[in-house]
Amino acid sequence: MSSASSSSPPLQHRHAPRIPSPRALGPLPHGSPRGASDDRAAAPDRRIRPVRAPDHPDGAARPDLPERVAATYGAEDLSTVTAFTGGFINFGYWAWLPELAGRPLTEEDRLRSEQDLYRLVLDTVDRPRDRTALEVGCGRGLGCALALREFDFGAVIGLDAHPDQIARALEANAGLLSADPRRLEFVLGPAQRMPLADACTDVVYSVEAAQHFRDLAGFAREAVRVLRPGGQFALATFLARVPEAVRVLPELLPPYANGLDVTHLVDDVAAALDGAGLVDVAVTPIGDGVWEPYDRYMAERPELRDKWPRQYLTAYQTGLLDYYLITAAAPAG
C-alpha cells in the first residue's frame, strides 16, 4: 500500500482479512431478520424528514455534477447497459462462483452478484428494527429496497446527486413507497453537501459510488455529521492501490480518462475517513470475488467480450487497483 500523502507517515488503518462470501449467500428469510426485535409497534419512531434539494423539472443535472457523470446517469442511463443487467449498476460479488462450474453464467447469476455485493456491505452493520440507514449514491434505489426487505431497517434514505436517478428510484420503488412511506425516502443532493439533519441516521453505506466523488474528504465529514454517536459506516468500491495508477489507469480504462471516475488511492480514502473523525477504519480487499468472475460473465457474451470493462481484470492482475470493503464507526459520544 502507498502512504496517505507524500509528507506524512502511512495511516495505520487496520487491514481486515479477505472475506470469502456474504452471509448465507442469499436473502434473509422474510419475517426473521437477524438481530431484529420482535415488536415493531413498540419501537420508537426515529424517522427524520430531511431538507429537500431544489427540484429540477427539466431533468438537468445539478450544476456541480461533472459532465460525464451527468450524461452517464442521465440520458445514457447506465442501468440499461447489458453489462449491468438488473439495474443495480455494480460489478457484483461472486464468491459463490465455484458452485457454477461447468455451465455458462446467466443474467440471473449476474443479478445475484449485484445483490450479494449489497448483502456483503449490509452484513457489516447491526440492524435493530428502529435503526435508520442512509445509502449515499443510491441510483435507482434497488439497494435501498433490498435493505428494507432483507435487513429490516426501521427506515432507509436514498441520496443521489442526479435528479434523473432520483426520478427512477421513485418510479422503481413506487409500490414500496405507497405501502409504507415512513420507511423509505429518496433525496436529491451531493455526497459532500448532504441536505440532511445532523445525527439523523444510524448507518451510512455506499455501494460502488465513491469512485465518482470528487471531494472524498467532504463526503467523510458529512458522514460523520449525519451519523448518530456510535453509528456505523460501510463503503464498497474499486480504488487504486499504488500512486502509479494515477497515470496508468486513464490509459487503460476510459472512465478514468473521460472524467466519469476519479483515481482515488485506497490509503487516501482511509486517511480521509480517519481525518474526518471516524474510528476503527478497516480496509478489506475483496477483488478476488469481483474481477475474475465479472470478466468471465463478460467473456461468455459475444456482445460484451470485446468491450473495455474487461480491462478492469488487467488493472487488478497488474496491481493497479482492487475492490475494497471499508468499514468504520462514528465516535461513541
UniProtKB/TrEMBL annotation:
GO MF: S-adenosylmethionine-dependent methyltransferase activity
Keywords, in A-Z order: Methyltransferase, Transferase
Highest taxon, organism lineage: Bacteria
Gene3D superfamilies the UniProt entry points to: Vaccinia Virus protein VP39
Record field: compositional bias (Basic and acidic residues): 36-66
GO BP: methylation
Region feature (Disordered): 1-66
UniProt-listed SUPFAM superfamilies: S-adenosyl-L-methionine-dependent methyltransferases
Domain Methyltransferase type per the UniProt entry, residue ranges: 134-234
Family, as annotated: Belongs to the methyltransferase superfamily.
The protein's name: Putative methyltransferase
Taxonomy of the source species: Bacteria, Bacillati, Actinomycetota, Actinomycetes, Kitasatosporales
